[in-house]
Structure formats: C-alpha cells, structure tokens
Design a protein that fits this description.
The complex is a heterodimer of chains A (89) and B (409). With 89 residues, chain A is an alpha+beta fold. Chain A has a domain of 44 residues. Helices cover 45% and strands 13% of the residues of chain A. Helix content of chain B is 44%, strand content 22%. Chain B is α/β, with parallel strands linked by helices and 409 residues long. In chain B, the strands form three sheets. A five-stranded mixed β-barrel of chain B has the order 1-2-3-5-4. In chain B, strands 7-6-8-9-10 form a five-stranded parallel sheet, with helices on both faces. Chain B has a three-stranded antiparallel sheet with strand order 11-12-13, with no helix packed on it. The chains are: A alpha+beta (89), B alpha/beta (409).
C-alpha cells in the first residue's frame, strides 16, 4: 500500500473530506481498474492517517502560571474543590 | 341642561371625556418615568400585563400591552422595584387613571443597563460584532484553553464534558478573576498573553457560571470586548445561563449559552468521528469490490463475445458448411444415379421388349434371303426359287420359295 505522509499542518477535516471525495469517485464506478485500485489504496492510507490524527493528542490538563511579562510555566491542573479530590480529571 | 342655579351639568361620559382631555394635553403625563414596586402582578393569557405600582404612600394601576411586553428581557413579579416609562391616562369604563407602560427597567440595575446599552451600541457601530469578523471554530480539537476561575463550576463542567467527548484532548486552564473590579482587565490580559505565547491553541473559552448582573459585569466591559475582538485565536464566550447576554457574547466568535454547552458544542465526539471513519473504510472496501466485480462481469461478457467472433469459430462454421455441402452433394449425386439407373432399367425393359428374339420366342419368325441375309419384309424382296432361311426360337430352317401369294390389303 502506498504510504501517505502525515502532514501536521493539514487539518483532520481536510483529510476527512478528501477521503469522502475518494469514496464518492469510487462509488460512481467510472474508473479504470488501475485508477480504482490506486484510489482505494490512497483512501485506505488516508483513513489510517485520520485515525492516527485522532489519537495524536495526549490527554493533558495543564494550568498556565504566568510568571512575568514573557515568563510562564505549565503545571498539571487539579481541581481545588472537595468534590474532585479523586483527581478524576 | 341647567340646574336652577344655572350651573353646567355634565353626563358621566362627558365629564370623563373632559378629564381625559386634560390628561392627554399634559406633556408630563404623556411621557413619564415612574419609580415604584410591583404588586398584584397578573399576566393575562393575551400577553397583556396588569399590576399595581406602589410606594409607601400611594399606588397607581398599570397596564402593559402585549406589543410592549414582548420586548421585556425579564418577567416582572410582585415586590420588584422598577422604573416604568409610559403615559398616564383615564380608563373610561371605571373613570380611573392608570399608567400605560411602554418600558420597564429593573430599578437599581438601570444604571448598569444603560451603560450596557451604550457600550453595546458604540461597539456595534464600530463594527466589532460584525459577522464577517467572526472566525470559525476549527474542527480539529487537539488543544484549547479555558480562561475562567480555577475553582468554579464552569471549569469543572468544561473538563468533564470535554473528557467524555474526546478523551485525549489537551486543555490549558488559565486561572482568572471572573468578578470584581479587576476581572475584565485580568481576562483581557490573559487573552493577549495566550495570543502572544501560544500558536497551537485551537480556541479559547472564556466564561463563568451564572450569577447576578453585577457578578457577570466583567464580561460587559469594554477592555475585555476589545481584547476578544483583537484575538487571533478564536474565542468562545460562555457566560452564565442561557438568558444572560453579555458584550463578550457579541464580540466573541461564538456565543455559547453556558460553559457546559461551550464544551458540548466545540469538542467533537471522538466515538462519532471514529465511527465515521470506519463507515468510510467499509464504503471504500465495498466500492472497490463492486468496481472489480463490474469489471470482471464486463470481461466475461467480452470474452464470450470474442469467442463468438474468433476466426476459429468462423473456420468451424466453414467446416460445417463444407460437411453439409458434401453431404448434400452426395445425396444429390446418389439421387441422380438412382434416377439414371431407373431410367436405364426402364430403357432396358423397353429394349428388351423390342429385342427380335423375344418376338421370335413368342412364335414369330424372321426370313432372310440367302445369300446376303437380307430380311424379307415384303413379297417383292424375294423371287421364286430363291433360297432363304427361317429363324425360329431354337434354330433355323433352310427353304426355297415355291410360290408367292400377295395378300390383298
């Protein structure tokens, strides 16, 4: 299968709409065998990228602490109130 | 009609009309603000409102008709202190004067309300609320920031809903004051700070939970509105409850009725996205299979056609034609031979019938002159004393002519 490069700058929905247009082309069925195989492979590659993109973010809840004009740090955020002592979030 | 004293006597209607004219010719009574407390409030099903406005010493009956009451952004209730703008006129049926309310403002909130309206109009005229400046909230939600109180219900709701919808999302919580005199500039500063130092934040939610108009006031301040408008990062404004509208809401790229709704509206449901992709993958597979099947069918069809049109087929046809030709020729030939044979047979029979021997066999005989063996057919063919032979079925007789007798015919 043809390797699609994941472009970080291309947003998820662009890949998704590309994928949808590929399916549409394939469903219309007016393609040559070679073309349809090529499109299929491209589509499978893109769907893989889409899935990877959805998992690319790590769960993280941070608190921004501003230290000065241009200084800041990020520390894990925890709810202060009693209901959330369990650190569920 | 005169009394015996000569004074003018009016009917009730006439005097009522007179009083009414006095009211309607008075500038103050035509457009007055009256401060008081609502009591006996009744909202009629027609949409008209009837109530009494009172203070410690007096009271005045009030009515607000549906056409005006529709514009109210709160529902008046008993005990509420209000400022009412309207005209005072006479209700002829009961000869009572009453206040026909056109506008009702909650007293005490009036100053804030006027400030709100003034700022709203100024910013609106400047174009800060125009649709064309609204940035779309991006679909890819990897990282977003929330500027709010770190201890409030708003941040708790946003985090829990976000986690439920997209478990691996990245949230940056930016603690800020959300009420009090410094709140607006604090939030504004943090919006600016995020814009300066972060380029990977998809959007910022600013907001807080519900509260009184004073508690929400930071979100009605100009400094915050301008910071929202200036922000390159799209801003979602999520302040208070559904019914609370703030200047921030108007200036933001998206207004969310509540902080929870901000998370619901802007964090995609990951499961749904995954399902979408799986569905598309299935469609891909199905369509490629269908495409192949279609091609295969076409191939089969062409193959069939090709065989039908191939020279081999033609040659076979020729073979068959030749075979048939030979078969036919053979038959014809056979027939012809048969016919000829028949004919010969018949001819032979006829020939047989003409064979002189067969006549002789039946008892006829032939005379031949000797010598010369000429057949004697007529009496002139032979003379007396000539020799001749008589041929009969099993031999010949030699004889001499004694006498000739001609048969008279």
């Amino acid at each position: 299968m043809k390797k699609e490069k994941i472009d970080k700058n291309v947003p998820f929905e662009d890949y998704l709409s590309k994928l949808e247009s590929i399916v549409k082309k394939l469903e219309e069925g007016e393609l040559s065998l070679d073309e349809s195989v090529k499109l299929y492979e491209e589509g499978m590659g893109i769907s893989k990228i889409c899935l990877e993109k959805l998992d690319s973010t790590k769960k993280k809840i941070e608190e921004l602490v501003i230290k000065g004009e241009d200084k800041y740090l990020l520390k894990p955020f925890t709810m202060n109130d009693k209901e959330n002592k369990s650190n569920e979030f | 009609m005169n009394t015996n004293t000569g004074a003018m006597i009016y009917s009730v209607s006439k005097i009522t009309q007179y009083i009414k004219n006095i009211f309607s010719n008075d500038d103050i009574l035509q457009d007055a603000w009256v401060l008081g407390e609502i009591s006996n409030f009744k909202l009629h099903s027609s949409g008209h409102m009837y109530f009494i406005l009172k203070d410690e010493n007096s009271q005045i009956r009030c009515v607000m008709f549906r056409g005006n009451s529709l514009h109210l952004n709160f529902l008046p209730r008993d005990g509420l202190k209000v400022k009412i703008r309207g005209s005072i006129s006479v209700y002829e049926k009961r000869v009572e004067y009453q206040l026909y309310a056109r506008e009702i403002l909650e007293a005490g909130k009036g100053e804030l309300y006027l400030a709100f309206e003034k700022l709203k109009n100024t910013l609106k005229e400047e174009g800060l609320f125009l649709e064309k400046y609204k940035k779309p909230i991006p679909f890819t939600r990897k990282k977003f920031a929330v500027i709010t109180s770190p201890t409030g219900a708003a941040i708790r709701d946003i985090i829990s809903i976000s986690m439920r919808r997209f478990s691996n999302i990245h949230i940056v919580v930016v603690p800020a004051l959300v009420q009090g005199i410094n709140a607006a500039s604090d939030i504004a500063y943090k919006i600016d700070f995020l814009n300066q130092h972060f380029n990977d934040i998809d959007f910022i939610i600013i907001g807080r939970g519900g509260g009184s108009i004073e508690e929400l006031w930071a979100f009605n301040e100009e400094i915050l509105a301008r910071s929202i408008f200036k922000s390159k990062i799209p801003i979602v404004s999520a302040v208070g409850h559904e019914t609370d509208f703030t200047i921030s809401d108007f200036a933001a790229d998206l207004r969310s009725p509540t902080p929870s709704a901000a998370a619901e509206m802007n964090i995609p449901d990951k499961n749904q996205l995954l399902n979408n992709i799986y569905t598309i993958k299935d469609k891909l597979k199905l369509s490629i299979i269908r495409n192949h099947e279609k091609k295969l069918e076409k191939l089969k069809y062409l193959n069939k056609n090709l065989r039908y049109l191939s020279p081999e087929n033609k040659i076979n046809q020729y073979y068959q034609f030749i075979d048939e030709f030979i078969y036919k020729s053979k038959n014809t030939l056979k027939n012809n031979i048969k016919i000829i044979e028949e004919k010969i047979k018949k001819d032979l029979q006829r020939l047989d019938a003409l064979n002189p021997w067969s006549v002789i066999k039946r008892g006829y005989s032939v005379c031949r002159k000797i010598p010369g063996y000429q057949i004697v057919k007529k009496i002139e063919d032979i003379k007396i004393a000539d020799n001749f032979e008589v041929i009969i079925s099993n031999g010949r007789l030699l004889a001499k002519v004694d006498k000739k007798e001609e048969r008279q015919s």
